[in-house]
Amino acid sequence: MSHSGPVSELGVESLTDQLRNTMSYNEDNGVNVNKPDFRELDLGSPVSPLLTRPGGLTSTTATSSSSSSGSVSGRTATGPSSNIPRISDSNYNSHSGELSGSSVESSPKNTRNFKPGHGRSYSTGTHPVIYSGGGSVNSPALNVFPTGNICPSGRILKTGMTVRSTKTDVLRSGTANYGHGSIMRGGAASKPGTTTECGSANYSKGLVVGGGGGGGGGEAMRRMGVDNNNDPEEMKRIGNENYKKGHFSEALSLYDKAIAISPGNAAYHCNRAAALMGLRRFAEAVRECEEAIRLDPGYVRAHHRLGSLFISLGQVENARKHLCFPGHQPDPVELLKLQTVEKHLSRCTDARSVGDWRSTLREVDAAIASGADASPQLCACRAEALLKLHQLDDAYLALSNIPQLEPYTTYPSQLKVFGMLPEAYLFFVRAQIELSRGKFEKALAAIEKAGQIDCLNVEVSVMLNNMTLVGRARSNGNDLFKSERYTEACSAYGEGLRLDPSNSVLYCNRAACWFKLGQWERSVDDCNLALGIQPNYTKALLRRAASNIKLERWAEAVRDYEVLRKELPNDNEVAESLFHAQVALKRSRGEEVYNMKFGGDVELVSGLEQFRAAISSPSASVVHFKASSNLQCKQISLFLDTLCARYPSVNFLKVDVEESPAIALAESVKIIPTFKIYRKGSRVKEMICPSPEVLESSVRHYSI
């Protein structure tokens, strides 16, 4: 309970005497001694008075804590028990009062250092004693009970009490709701909403400003401290904790906040670079390291981090410049990595210069594995080597996996990759791969871009000239082919191949000319060359199969059509071509073919001899044993007609067990519907009442 009216001086002295009496007792000899600590005191207030330690000293360490009941600060001077702190201007039932000691020292320099905002509590007796920091605490005016906001109106000193220091605390920004009012240290007024260094924590009412708010809060308070903190060092500390946990995005956000508060701090930029490296945003990380070095040219850690970045990017000369920083020993691990990457890059350059593409591929893979795994140029070199080795699909995949860097403006002007500027080399490789895929427009656009970036490079200039000529040769060949001038078209395509021998499209186009000229063997040869570069080239497969049919190479034609059937399952033309090739293959082997109609109905077998002849074929024969009166047989028969068109290489037969019991008896058919698959007269599979999925899976398996 609080009183708003004044209290007489006599009342205060009376309360003080009562307090002193309760803290001592008389032995038989009449000497006053301190009461033992286990004796409970009931002063009507949740805050118990300070009890002296031996010698009368309570505490010399300035610490802080808080609760909803009030605050005690400072330390007592040495002396007899008469110097015990007195209750000043407070009521027993008041929860917003303040207990002040006889002497207050602000920010002692001879005590242990504590982090800003941290506090420590000591307790004597049965109630906690709360210290509110190392600074002086101003009490309210005498005879005034502190209700509502408590604003310091001057320091109240008791007679005989010595003030060690009158220096006031410097307020940090921060809030913590406390008690019933606002307690402000240092004599400065504070507005609601001001934040402490450790953030804000809600208690019962009011505001505490100063070091180390106490009480709970836990993770929620720490998170609130992050959100509202204006101390860049605290931001960096929490960012470092997130970085160590692998939370790079969270760490980056905190470093950004620290930089926003203190943009001239080199360490913040260096830490931000580390978070960006964790996110594999290497170009941004390079810029952050360079900014840190600009702010502090002697910042060794920033130099080493930038050196590691350049190793990842495959820039060994730049990496050496920063790793081997004058006056400092380089990191031996990073130095070894640099030397290994440099060795493989040198070998890769030598192999590429003489056209040894297998060695080029081996060395570039070794350089990437050694640490240069973020280099777009090395990934492009790998794609180029695969292309030259006629592995177009793998080359295109490697091209698609090149690390994507944002426009990178920190390439030194003297930096070269295989003799050309780094960005130009990326477009140079892309142009070659697009050209081999037949994407002439994309290829021309890429090589023109490379020429704009590095107009003086010989390789780029030659490639630009060749690509222009290849495009012209392709266009001329297409026009001649349309005019049915096939021989001239062959010559035009040949001119393009002389300039670009890895162009699968030109080989395939020339194969079409040879086919029209009746030179099917040469057509097959050109198709083989095209498929060697691009194995899944559909047009080349179709033209090779057609040429093999002309050459009556039925097995080779069937093999190509089966591959096409898988690639183009809904292409009826391919299915029919496969069917006729299979029929021709069977006839060439002397087999009797019963089903001569593509996509025809399932053949009905009624006699035992006919049945045995039908299943003797080397190719698979699927026999459906059914009964006309059975509903399940009728349903599965419809699906069998679909399979007959879908798998023309398979013989589909049906036997009505009611009309042909001899066949059913010979094959031991007791349940319908039953499916049996035969090859060369022998049963290889039997299914009783199968589902459509199981039936098709078995047909697909034995159709190959």
Automatic annotation (TrEMBL):
* Bias (Polar residues): 80-93
Instruction: Tell me which UniProt keywords the record has, alphabetically.
Output: Repeat, TPR repeat
Ranges: TPR repeats: 232-265
Q: Where is the composition biased (Low complexity)?
A: 55-79, 94-107
Record carries keyword Repeat: yes
Q: Where is the Thioredoxin domain?
A: 609-697
Domain of life, source organism: Eukaryota
Tell me yes or no: is Transmembrane among this UniProt entry's keywords.
no
> From its record, what is one biological process in GO terms?
response to stress
Where are the residues of the annotated region Disordered? 25-126
What Pfam families does the record point to? Thioredoxin, TPR_11, TPR_16, TPR_6
Q: Which PROSITE patterns match?
A: TPR (PS50005)
The name of this protein is: TPR repeat-containing thioredoxin TTL1
